[in-house]
Amino acid sequence: MNIESHFLNWHGRKLVLALVALIAALSITSLAAAEGDAPGAQHFVYLPVVSRSATTQVANGNFESGVTGWTIYSAKSRNVIRTSFSPNTVTPLSGAWGAWLGGMYSEITHLEQSIKIYAGTAYLTYWHYITSSDYCGYDFARVTVNGTQVEQYDLCTTANTNGWRKHVVNLSAYAGQTVTVRIRATTDNSLNSNLFLDEVSFQATGAVQLAPDGMNDLMFDEATLPEWEDMLKGPQTK
Ligand SMILES: [Ca+2]
Asked: How far is the CA of 167 from the centre of ligand 1 (A)?
């Protein structure tokens, strides 16, 4: 299974629900007509309530609206939300736009916005693509909430993702609050690192489903993922 089919499945389910609702409504209407009600008789058609997708709590989470929705900072005045990356073999996960953090020596890049955290969808998710030439321990990705670090991981060769990977951060401690969520990358003065981002959203659980290339259909629990990541990293210094 690949991401396109996940996407289609999700939208497919919504389409099926919509069709069921339409058929039900038409059936009620036609039944009433078939019973030969007098003109002016009241007919009631009940339509289902469809809740908003949780993804709407992030403004421009897929970056397809361009440079909007996010407060952007780049110490090197880089264009962070953009349509082309380097290496140019990296392209946005979806659509034409994505975000590129890091990308230069001694860079600090962040994207942030104020987001309401809901108890039912309290897991921040985003897709990242790490390309780094550095050793571990020098360049970092961080997630902060109201300035407090809730996540940090290395940008280094052994953390290179070789494709888009979904990342999940548990923000359930902030459920019910409107908070400032910041995703940040920092690089030091040698051996560059890039952190590409796309599809920032929220989901109900900590489950991470890996990207379509490689280990398809494998589900990792958030709690065990750091162990996998640590296992893949060797001790390195520069
Ligand atoms: Ca570096």
From this structure: 21
Q: Are residues 108 and 30 in the same domain?
A: no
Q: Are residues 81 and 20 in the same domain?
A: no
C-alpha to C-alpha distances, 46 to 24, 28, 33, 43, 49, nearest whole angstrom: 9, 9, 16, 10, 9
- The residue count of the chain comes to 238
Quick: pLDDT tens for 188-210.
999 999 999 999 999 999 998 65
199, 216 Cβ separation under 8 angstroms? no
- For residues 103 and 177, membership in a common domain is answered with yes
Do 65 and 9 lie in one domain? The reply is no
Q: What is the pLDDT of residue 230?
A: 53
Q: Are residues 157 and 219 in the same domain?
A: yes
The residue segments making up the domain with residue 196 are 54-232
| Ligand 1 centre distance from Cα of residue 5 (Å) | 36
Structural domain count of the chain: 2
Predicted confidence (pLDDT) per residue in 42-90, tens digit: 666 665 554 444 446 899 999 999 999 999 999 999 999 999 999 889 9
User: How remote is the C-alpha of 46 from its chain's centroid?
Assistant: 34
Residues of the chain with pLDDT > 70, as a percent, come to 64
| Ligand 1 center–CA 187 separation, angstroms | 5
